[in-house]
């Protein structure tokens, strides 16, 4: 039987089962002043809010107080104890609270002290008490870590928020921050509306675990295998910190956790659940409509862990007036290692949690770092989603060109490719085998074209196998003779059944086809019989510059995918021959989101400088003429 845990802003001050005292404290250590204000460290991104960062540096340099670090446990209903690591800016005073909650190491190392340029360190320097908490059954916390079920870990996290709001060192105001799982947990907790939670800042998240385990309905075997090993390693690190300090309760809890419920047990079940059925229905997004606090999010386009799919939440789910979005190219950690994004994070929480009148409301709701690279930053900002993602359609032609006009009898044709072969997106630098792919390439662009959002690749296709897996890639063929990877998407064509049209994340739109992925909707292909299918390319932003061409490549979905690594698909292993058709009656096309009038803010960069958008030599002819879009 599950414990009943009462949370919510309407609840009385007293929390059921939560002690009034600050709980057991293993130690409280004073941090030498030399370690307080180091803002130099891991930053792969570039500052796009330099003035704010300078202000933070100035405030830090004048700090007099000495941070205090504490360890302890938060009791929650049912007898479980949540391990925490609390770092206060000073030994005395009341502080706004910035909290992280995970099944890694938060309860042993909140990273406010030993990682100088981290988000946690910046928040500590900005005057926040930084609280890290391990969820039940992870690290040194007791209980069971059923992390695929939001109802297993979110109530305890909401209790931790309310506990933090009640402590004598707290102002009663709590915000949450963090990337990946530390961001994902914020959605589940905020949906419970715990008293004291003022804002959340979830970076690099997903709210649908099926989309990670089965992108496009294809088993992501590499991630399912490697992730549990990573979780186990981080939990071991967390436990060793506290056990070494003499925490016997941690030793008992950790031993019980690893024996009773190792992470691999949960992920082993993913291979046995290839459809979006009840097994996947209790992910972090189950109650997302209940999130009512301000949200600042960040997603990176080539994220090879959770993908960029959560971008859609900011224009389809969250309140547009109280949500802000940062987007950039790069891998899973891009947002958390970008100095500009972290500066915006501090300003956001200072406003909503610390109550600082810092002009936050003038912050643009959409902030996009164009073609993020190691040399310069180019920020584009917009205040409304209606300003971006205007659908434009480019049609496949029988000669392999990509044009703004529909296919005609004169331009009709069919293009076959065979497999399986390794997906090109995961091995971009290697030249693909002849006959293993087809491409559709536009003439050189007449002007810059800024594309943003998801894309829909709509194809008429036949196959010699009943369940073919296909990859679609969008790339830029540059005037210098190189082809630059931009984004990709995947689909098991037997899972092509679409959800009803609409604007919610689980509905289909012109730019974002959403598939049901149920056993009942499985539609195996009849041999060599064309069917219509829509494949979604994950959200991205990219400026295709004047003189370049846009290319769509279709190939096998098998093996490593995405330029930044992390995902590896186990696709169809049987030899196949797929054929793409285009004609007046079988229009195959790609629909992209255009930012009208937007242009590149800097000249083209060498490919080696652009984060996770690699180049390779182009070996395919470019159609003559020019293409004018928009």
Outline of the structure:
With 630 residues, the chain is α+β, with helices and mostly antiparallel strands.
Could you describe the 3D structure shown?
The chain is an alpha+beta fold and 630 residues long. It has two domains: 27-293, Rossmann fold (3-Layer(aba) Sandwich), CATH 3.40.50; 388-617, Jelly Rolls (Sandwich). It is 18% helix and 27% strand. The chain contains ten helices and 25 strands. It has helices at 50-61, 119-125, 150-166, 181-190, 209-213, 221-244, 248-260, 263-268, 313-316, 339-352; strands spanning 25-30, 68-75, 81-88, 95-102, 129-134, 170-179, 197-203, 295-300, 323-328, 366-369, 379-382, 390-396, 402-403, 413-419, 437-441, 449-462, 469-477, 482-492, 531-544, 549-556, 559-561, 567-569, 576-582, 589-594, 615-617. The chain has an eleven-stranded mixed β-sheet with strand order 1-2-3-5-4-6-7-8-9-10-11, with helices on both faces. Strands 12, 13, 14, 16, 19, 23 and 24 form a seven-stranded antiparallel β-sheet that branches. A five-stranded antiparallel β-sheet has the order 15-20-17-18-25, with no helix packed on it. A hairpin with a 4-residue loop joins strand 17 (469-477) and strand 18. The longest helix is centred in the middle third of the chain and has 24 residues, at 221-244. The radius of gyration is 25 Å and the shape is globular. Residues 1-63 have low confidence and may be disordered.
């Amino acid at each position: 039987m599950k414990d009943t845990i009462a949370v919510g802003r309407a609840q009385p001050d007293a929390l059921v089962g939560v002690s009034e005292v600050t709980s057991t404290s293993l130690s409280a250590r004073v941090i030498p002043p030399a370690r307080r204000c180091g803002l130099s460290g891991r930053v792969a991104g570039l500052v796009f809010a330099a003035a704010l960062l300078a202000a933070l540096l100035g405030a830090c340099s004048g700090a007099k107080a000495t941070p205090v670090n504490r360890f302890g446990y938060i009791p929650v209903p049912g007898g479980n104890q949540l391990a925490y690591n609390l770092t206060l800016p000073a030994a005395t005073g009341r502080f706004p609270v910035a909290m992280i909650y995970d099944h890694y190491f938060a309860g042993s190392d909140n990273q406010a002290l030993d990682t100088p340029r981290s988000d946690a360190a910046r928040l500590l320097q900005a005057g926040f008490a930084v609280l890290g908490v391990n969820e039940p059954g992870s690290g040194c916390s007791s209980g069971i870590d059923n992390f695929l079920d939001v109802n297993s870990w979110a109530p305890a996290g909401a209790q931790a928020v309310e506990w933090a709001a009640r402590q004598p060192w707290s102002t009663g105001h709590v915000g949450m921050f963090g990337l990946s799982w530390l961001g994902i947990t914020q959605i589940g907790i905020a949906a419970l509306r715990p008293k004291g939670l003022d804002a959340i800042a979830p970076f690099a998240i997903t709210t649908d675990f099926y989309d990670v385990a089965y992108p496009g309905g294809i088993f992501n075997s590499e991630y399912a295998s490697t992730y549990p090993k990573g979780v186990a390693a981080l939990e071991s690190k967390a436990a060793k910190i506290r056990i070494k300090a003499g925490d016997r309760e941690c030793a008992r809890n950790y031993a019980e956790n690893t024996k009773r419920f190792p992470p691999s047990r949960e992920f082993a079940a993913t291979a046995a659940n290839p459809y979006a059925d009840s097994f996947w229905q209790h992910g972090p997004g189950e109650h997302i409509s209940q999130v009512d606090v301000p949200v600042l999010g960040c997603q990176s386009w080539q994220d090879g862990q959770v993908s960029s799919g959560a971008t859609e939440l900011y224009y389809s789910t969250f309140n547009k007036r109280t949500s802000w979005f940062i987007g950039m190219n790069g891998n899973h950690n891009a947002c958390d290692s970008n100095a500009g994004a972290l500066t915006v994070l501090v300003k956001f929480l200072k406003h909503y949690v610390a109550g600082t009148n810092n002009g936050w409301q003038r912050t643009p709701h959409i902030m996009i770092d164009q073609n993020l690279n190691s040399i310069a930053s180019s920020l584009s900002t917009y205040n409304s989603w209606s300003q971006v993602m205007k659908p434009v359609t480019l049609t496949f032609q029988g000669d392999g060109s990509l044009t703004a006009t529909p296919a005609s009898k004169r331009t009709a044709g069919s293009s076959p490719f065979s497999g399986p072969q390794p997906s090109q997106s995961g091995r971009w630098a290697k030249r693909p085998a002849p006959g293993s792919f087809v491409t559709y390439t536009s003439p050189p662009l007449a002007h810059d074209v800024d594309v943003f959002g998801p894309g829909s690749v709509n194809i008429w296709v036949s196959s010699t196998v009943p369940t073919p897996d296909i990859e679609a890639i969008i790339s830029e063929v540059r005037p210098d003779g190189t082809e630059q990877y931009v984004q990709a998407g995947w689909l098991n064509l037997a899972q092509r059944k679409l959800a009803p049209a609409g604007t919610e994340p689980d509905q289909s739109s012109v730019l974002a086809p959403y598939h049901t992925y149920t056993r009942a909707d499985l539609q195996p292909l009849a041999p060599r019989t064309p069917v219509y299918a829509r494949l979604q390319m994950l959200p991205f932003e990219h400026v295709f510059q004047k003189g370049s061409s846009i290319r769509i490549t279709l190939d096998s979905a098998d093996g490593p995918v995405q330029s930044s690594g992390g995902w590896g698909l186990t696709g169809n292993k049987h030899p196949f021959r797929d054929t793409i058709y285009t004609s007046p009656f079988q229009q195959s096309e790609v629909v992209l989101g255009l930012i009208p009038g937007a242009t590149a803010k800097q000249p083209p960069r060498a490919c080696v400088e652009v984060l996770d958008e690699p180049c390779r030599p182009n070996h395919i002819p470019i159609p003559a003429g020019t293409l004018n879009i928009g």
